[in-house]
Amino acid sequence: MAEELNPFKIAQEQLDQAAQIMKLDRQAHAILREPKRQLTVTLPVKMRDGTTKTFTGFRVQYNDARGPAKGGIRFHPAETIDTVKALAAWMTWKCSLANIPFGGGKGGVICDPKKFNDVEMENLSRAYMRGIASIVGTNQDVPAPDVYTTPQIMAWMMDEYSRIVGHNDFGMITGKPVEIWGSEGRKDSTAMGGMFVMREAAKALKIDLKKAKIAVQGFGNAGMYAYTLSKSMFGSKVVAISDSAGGVYDPDGLDMKKLEEAKAKTGSVQGYQSKNAKKVSNEQLLELPVDILIPAAIENQVKKDNADRVKAKLLLELANGPVTPDATNILFEKGVVDLPDFLVNSGGVIGSYFEWTQNVSGYYWDTPRFDAELDKIITQSFRDTMATQKGYADKKQKISPRMAAYVIAVDRVARAMKARGWY
Ligand code: NAD
User: What is the pTM of this model?
Assistant: First the structure.
């Protein structure tokens, strides 16, 4: 991987920038530039033909000064320790900004899950959990699903861990099926959190959500719920949506039923048909004349060469890393309010926090309570971010929402380390 694209280097540079803005203590900065702990495991897995294949897995605990490490597990052919380290750092800042009692962690296995059958997937999941069992647990490190890992995989891992420790431990992993005390509300909590942030940002920017035009990139968990919720919660008009094959744009607004039909019939939302609908590429979607742009698919979509053409007033990063560092600066100079991923999509981990608290206490909530508590936490994160940005502006220092969020998150972790006597 080229030096400048190394995600861990990007994570370190972002921290360095925040450290400079907030005049972070040098000793705290040094601790926070590196993960606290990284484990590499070799996993022998029985395959369907009777042979044993060996895989490599990682678990990184970046910082746990504020609570157990928290972060997903990815099964991906291009997984590297540096990707896992970067994602673990970003989880640390995400949990801190949300002000929930977790540190940051991440895990991964280098593998191509599309080639596995169910038995091989279960064998790999259990082998991975045996590999990392000695460093995870309800009070130590709480994994969750991520790229190509599912509630079923979480269930196998929770079962394997429970066998090792000799008792059920439901709180050691989140994103579980509801049958073993996963949370009903978790499935749309990422998009729901993004919607609460959108509501608050629209108020601040005086965007009328009833009249607002929205473009969403991505039609998976994050994108699809962003589409349905922005219509059902605020009556907004989603005028464009896309998947990996491309997108569709109708200035009059899109219809969910027709979208689903198009997806079922043609395999892509591009098959959508209406009087004024036209096909757009994923690149064109980002440049449409809309009020709000929601990238909800993959990373590095708004870059140096297209950031200047973004017309939206508000950009909500529902995907992880959809805006490159260069593009963040261009958008900031242009006056586009670009709200960072670790604020906008923190509804996912806040939902995981609710699952964990319920597992630990043994008392279960209904969905309205889940959504109301999510609203309270993420709205506070948004307000903290805006207040910090304004605080710097009052001192004549212009900082982006991303840097404001960083300053809050890093400051909370540094204070916890200080209180504990780590520096
Ligand atoms: P998903 O796999 O359910 O959906 C991904 C969507 O992106 C699909 O519609 C796919 O067709 C589309 N896509 C793939 N390649 C594309 C491309 N080149 N251009 C445009 N679209 C493309 O994934 P998801 O869970 O919705 O996650 C989407 C993003 O949100 C990721 O960045 C993820 O890290 C982030 N995120 C998700 C959650 C969550 O709870 N699901 C939480 C935090 C962050």
Answer: 0.96
